[in-house]
Amino acid sequence: MDFQDQPTAKSIPWKPVAIAAVGVVVVVVLIFVIVRWIKKDAQMEALSEILQEDVVSSLDSCDSAENPESCKQAKVTDLATKHQSVQTCELLETAEARDNCYWSVAQASSDVSYCDTISVEEDASKCFDGVNLQLAFDSNDGGYCSNMKDAGRKANCEELFAGPITIENCNERAPELCGDLAYYTQARRNLDVSLCQEIVDEDLREACQEIVSDRLLAQEAQAGADLDDDGLTTQEESQYGTDPLNPDTDEDGYLDGAEVSAGYNPLGAGRL
């Protein structure tokens, strides 16, 4: 037998195999990117036309920010809160960012159902209880306390509203709460979130911060809005003394904003 006649072992063609493996990885990545792209498009289409424009404008303004991703998270959350739209929160990339957005919408709308969209159960429970505490204070109705999930927070809430406890009767009912209630009342009256930091009770402090912050955002949004489409914002209407709901305050046939731009008095004859 001639050993030279035996078949020789063939080597594996590694180069084609490596190329094929890289090709598979590229295809998987492309599929992932395309799926995310399609999902984002579907999420955008679910938003109203006005909200779509706001989102696009806000996200475009983040391109030049020092931290574009943080900017986008903040912008999307602000828009979701302003429009009370949890669909807008879906545009955020991470679960944590979406959960924070859901929580903000729930607080702004006083709607506990939005808390159910939060992925972390403990945070969803805190959101649910926080909204109920807010509703209790807003309506001066301690009945909302019975809806709270955490036993400790529920007990604190019921104790606060057993009567209810007010600035006037807290000295007799619960002297330790008088300071918190005073700070809470003053913070809401003055829209001063720094006063909320002085509140000892954690739930009341968080509710105070959420409520005051939401009202400041709403006030800021309203000041920059043009409610009657006359070319003047609500803040400018106040400055010139014009009616924010009447585009032609002096009824001379010219829009208030056009008159101001041209240097004329929007309240009557003559120039500014």
Secondary-structure blueprint:
Elements: H1 14-45, H2 49-61, H3 68-83, H4 86-89, H5 95-109, H6 121-139, H7 151-160, H8 170-173, H9 175-190, H10 202-223, H11 234-240, H12 256-262
Helix pairs in contact: 2-3, 3-5, 5-6, 6-10, 9-10
Specify the overall morphology: globular
| Alpha carbon gap, first and last residue | 116 Å
How many H/I helices? 12
Please write the string of helix (H) and strand (E) elements: HHHHHHHHHHHH
Low-confidence stretches: 26-30, 32-40
Based on the model shown, name its key terms.
mainly alpha, 272 residues, 61% helix, globular
Account of the 3D structure:
The protein is 61% helix and 0% strand. The chain has twelve helices and no strands. It has helices at 14-45, 49-61, 68-83, 86-89, 95-109, 121-139, 151-160, 170-173, 175-190, 202-223, 234-240, 256-262. The chain has a domain at 226-272. The model is unreliable at 26-30 and 32-40 (pLDDT under 50).
Provide a brief overview of the structure.
The chain is mainly α. About 5% of the residues have low confidence.
